[in-house]
Structure formats: structure tokens, C-alpha cells
Amino acid sequence: MENTDNVGVGRRVTKKREKRKAKSGKDNFFLLLAITLFYLVIAWLLVLSGDDWAWGGDIGQARLENHFDEYNGRYFGNIIEMIITRNLFARLLIYSFVNTGIVFLIREILDRKVAYVYCFLLILLLPVSFYSQTYGWLAGFANYNTSTFLFLLIIYFVQKNRNSFFLCGSIFVLSLLTQLFIENVAIASILIAGIGLLAAFIFKERVLSYLSWLAGSTIGASIMFSNSAYHIENNMRGFSNADLDTFSSMLLTDWTELYVKQNALLLFFFSIVMYLLAEKKTLGKLLLYFFPSSYFMLRYLLEITWRQQPMPVLIIELFLIFIFLTSLLFAISKASIPLFSKRRAFSYITISLLLVAPFLIVTPYGPRNILTSYVFLGLALFELILHTKIDLADRRNQKVALTFVFCISLFFIGMHGVNRYEESQRILHLKQELNTNQTEVNLKRLPYEFIGHDLTPPDGSVQSDRQKVHYNISLNTKFNIENYSDPSLDELLENK
């Protein structure tokens, strides 16, 4: 005879689970909606700058008509940049969709074990220099954010590891399109797909998804690098620009500066996780795990760069990086976590390294090139956190994270809003000055130029001329660049 008490208890437990699941689903929906609205606002507030003025005008049209020949092979990225600099609705739609999509895919790749609030917080904690050239600059967004989104989508599909015709076809198309954004991603994607294929053979897994990835990325790379820009001597994108002799100097300076030293906060989080994963928490391990990351954190806060350092210090810093990376790999390998999670953590770190490895011998290299690598380091970090005593599912922890997210989001909206307002005011001032036939005018910098890229280029530069053309200002007009100051504040201080 059936025990009615047990049945009743079972039903109540099931109903509670269903309620929690429904509430969680509703919370996730509204948080994703809030993230989308945040990026919609940012897209609306962004100030055109740098290459945006060219892509939004006749120069961009001329490049398109020439099929971007002798310029670059970033065909897909170039077209997106032309669209978002000419149409506000398209900008709002594409910017919000891609950036929300990055947050969405981070959680999906982590098998939905990490809440959206943490995934979004990871992006909000992006170093300012990385943010300024990706989220704060439309030209950077068009190439770097969109390629990051597509690359994450490839990883998501490949992790499903099914021999589905639709899935493999999607991977092929995505991997081909992803190659038409950035050169380093085009190179790294082939290497990563090849390594993944080899690993699939070793671990006796399905290989069709990796074959689709490798085929698509190879074809896409051949399309990109068929552009004549890469075959012209002394062109900054030319193959002749690759120089093995720069390896040691890049390793000591720009490469480690951007990939490691400016990622100090992420390094510190890794230190915490390493210590929590250690079976025996000794003082020696505490120093080993935290000294390098603490050093780079302090260095970052004091705004010290490699240009201010003597060679012996740069060599010591390289040694600290080697110690940290070795400790991290050793800590993961020795940790009592499933082999599946170890493989994923190692894979994400390897992908992160391979994405920036080409810049050891090629240029140009800047903060924007680190975005995708940063995301994969974040994926590795989350994969490890899931096996520590840190409970990401705890409601109190999520509320704390949500508070940080809310405050940082408002802070960024405020800064972009002030920049947008001041941009409209300075352009209005310029037009008024020019109406009085002035040939030399003062151009005030924006208050928060560090969250954008090339917002006030030097007078006489290529970008400054493009800025003048965009606002229908004569090229003969001279701009006297001034630092930002608020007249009302200046008046208050003078009265004081």
C-alpha cells in the first residue's frame, strides 16, 4: 500500500523545486534584459572618435568600393563598422546584442553553473585601457567584441561535441566568418582547432566538430590574408612586418605589460583560487601564490609601466610571471577536482595564450587585442572557483555581486553621459566660433577621455583632419587643444 505521507512530502518538495526553478528563470530573464538595456544606453551615449569618422564618411565608402584592397582583410568587421557609424538604430541593436551575447555565452560555456551577475561583473572589471579600445570605441567594438562573441559561440558549439550536420555546419560557417575580423584570431583559431583535433584523437572523442572548425578557419584565413595589404612591403599589416628578433623585447615590454601586468586583478583572483584549492595551506604556499599577483596589483594601482622601469626590474618581473604561471599550472594539476574540469581550465588558459602569442613577433599590438584572452582567462577562473568553498549560488554572494554590478554600471553610464554632453557643447562652441570667421579656435578635451579612444586627436594629425571633415569644419582651422575644466568650478575657486 502506498504511503500517502511520503507522497505528500515528495509533492511538496517537487513544487518547491519548480518554484525555485521558475523564480531563477525569471531572475535570469530580467538580469539579461537589464544588461541589454545597459548596453543600449552605452551605445547611444558613445562619442564617435578615431577611425569612426573615416568609416562613417566618404573614406569608408571608398574603401568599400575598393573591396578594402590594400587596407586589410577584416571584411566582416569593416562592414559592421560602416553600418554602426551610419545608422543609430543598427548601432544600438548590434552593440547591445553582441555585448549581452558575450555575457550569455560565458554562462552557457560554463554549463550554466555561474550566475549572469558574475559573468557580467567579469566584463565590468575589464581593465580601463582594454575597455576604452573595445566597449568605448565603435571601431574597436566592430572588430574585437564581435569576434569575441563569434569565437565564444564556436567554443560553445564545439563543447557540445555532437556529429550533428547542423552543428558541424554552424561551426564551419562561424569559424570562417570569425576569421574576417582580426589577424591574430585568424592565426590562433587554426592552431586551437588543430590542437583540439589532436586532443580529440588522443582522448578518443568525436572529431567532426574539430574538423569543421579547422576547415572553416583555414578557408577564412586564406580569404583574409589574400588581401594585398598583407603582401605589400613596409605595410604595418604586411607579412614582412613579422620579426623574430623582436621576441625578447616584446616579451619584456608590451606583451607582458598588457597580457599579464594590467590583468593584475584577475591574477589576484587566481591566487585566491589556487590557495583555496591547495590541500595543505602553508605559509610558503601563501607567499608563492600571492606575492607575484600582489606585486603586479600594487604596480597597477601606482600606474607604473615598463617604460619607467630599468632592464633588471623588467627581467625580475618576467621571472615573477614565470613563477606565477608555473604555480597556477601546478596547482590545477594537483587539485582534487575532476579531470574534465582540469582539461577545461587548461584549455581556456591555452586558448588565452595562443590568441596573443602572434604579437610576440608582429605589430601593431594594443589593449584592444587582449579582450578575447581576458574572457578566456575569466572562463578558466570560474571553472576553478566552482570547485572551491566559494558558493556562487549563495543568495547573499549574488546580492553583493549585484550591488557591485549596479554601482559600476551607473558609474560608466554617468561618465559616458557627461562625455556625450560635453562633446555636444564643444561642437556647438566650435560652430559659434567659426561663424565669426575665426581660423584658430580652442578645443577642450572631454572630462573622461580614458574610457574612449582618440576622442581629441592632436591638431594636424590624420584623425584630427577626419574629425574636422565629419563636422564640416575647414581643414585650415587650427585647434588649440586644452585640458578639460569646468568654468563654473573655476569661477568658484577664484572667488574662494
The overall strand count is: 2
N-to-C series of helices and strands: HHHHHHHHHHHHHHHHHHHEHEH
The share of residues in extended strands comes to: under 5%
What is the helix fraction of residues, given as a range?
Answer: 55-70%
| Mean pLDDT figure | 91
Query: Structural class, please?
Result: mainly alpha
Q: What's the Cα radius of gyration? A: 25 Å
Distance between the termini: 89 Å
Number of helices: 21
Largest sheet: 2 strands, parallel
> Which regions have little confidence, pLDDT < 50, spanning 5+ residues?
none
User: Order of strands side by side in the largest beta sheet?
Assistant: 1-2
Shape: globular
Q: If you had to describe this structure to a student in words, what would you say it looks like?
A:
There is one protein chain. By secondary structure, the protein is an all-alpha fold. Helix content is 68%, strand content 2%. It is built from 21 helices and 2 strands. It has helices at 4-45, 51-55, 58-65, 75-86, 88-109, 116-124, 128-132, 138-160, 165-178, 183-202, 208-224, 247-252, 254-259, 264-277, 283-301, 311-334, 339-356, 371-385, 395-434, 462-470, 487-495, and strands at 440-444, 478-482. A two-stranded parallel sheet has the order 1-2. Helix 1 packs antiparallel against helix 5 and helix 8 (138-160) packs antiparallel against helix 9 (165-178).
